[in-house]
Design goal:
Elements (H helix, E strand, L loop, with lengths): L25 H46 L6 H7 L7 H17 L2 H14 L5 H18 L10 E6 L6 E11 L5 E9 L2 E11 L4 E2 L5 H9 L12
Antiparallel strand pairs: 1-2, 1-5, 2-3, 3-4
Helix pairs in contact: 1-3
Length: about 240
């Protein structure tokens, strides 16, 4: 049985004004679209900028050397590169720098290479102004190496939680070592990094029996969590 049509004399209920969707002002629409476009293109621009910066930083010194060799016609095909490639060999400086770094890594794996680096380290550590900069940079590089070290070689061994007094909140840090105090108790050192830099932070000394290990959080995941200010949560596919 079909429904009867409404009585023409029955008044149609009016829609309240607050229910009606008001169109956005033009400036608000333009602002929202601009921000949407900005956030869409920003990751691409930042990625390109970082890659360009790293490439130019690595390629620059060796590229200047190659340009000088081409100007002096000391490389095969110098005339061609000077006429058609702007006086350089595209990408050669970058590859040359990587080869030199690889060569240095191979040399430092031998006894003489290690002795040479130790000698340079001792000389730079005694220069009044240079030693402060050199030691700070060396410690920063060593910290990065420890964070990204292979399993078993990294000094950041595990992730642990430390409870804040009088609260259910917890902070996490990296277990860096353990020692025995004068009373014979085993204490664990935990490094709690400051976001977004994992190179600075606080050192907590926690009794081994009270240490709460974060078994579901790896060192890599915790590092990403610090650097991203918590945007990249463990197991999250997107920030």
């Amino acid at each position: 049985m079909s429904a009867l049509p409404p009585d023409p004399g029955t008044p149609v209920p009016l829609i309240p004004p607050e229910v009606l969707v008001k169109p956005k002002p033009f400036l608000t629409y333009v602002r929202d679209r601009f921000l949407a476009g900005l956030f869409a293109v920003l990751p691409l621009v930042l990625t390109y900028w970082i890659i360009s910066f790293v490439y130019n930083f690595v390629n620059g010194p060796a590229d200047r050397l190659i340009r000088q060799l081409i100007r002096d016609h000391l490389l095969p095909g110098s005339a061609y590169f000077a006429e058609h490639q702007g006086g350089t060999i595209p990408g050669a400086g970058f590859m040359l720098t990587l080869f030199i770094i690889l060569l240095i890594g191979m040399v430092t794996g031998h006894f003489l290479g290690r002795r040479l680096l130790q000698g340079i380290d001792e000389v730079l550590s005694h220069v009044p102004v240079v030693k402060v900069i050199y030691q700070a940079l060396r410690q920063a590089v060593q910290a990065l190496q420890q964070i990204g070290g292979e399993k078993g070689s990294s000094q950041f061994r595990q992730v642990a939680y430390i409870r804040l007094p009088g609260s259910a909140a917890r902070i996490f840090g990296f277990v860096t070592g353990k020692f025995v105090d004068e009373q014979g108790a085993t204490l664990v050192t935990v490094f709690v990094p400051h976001a977004p830099s994992p190179l600075t932070g606080l050192i907590f000394v926690v009794p081994e029996g009270e240490l709460e290990l974060a078994h579901g959080l790896t060192v890599e995941q915790a590092t990403k969590l610090v650097i991203s200010l918590g945007l990249i949560a463990p197991g999250a596919k997107k920030p």
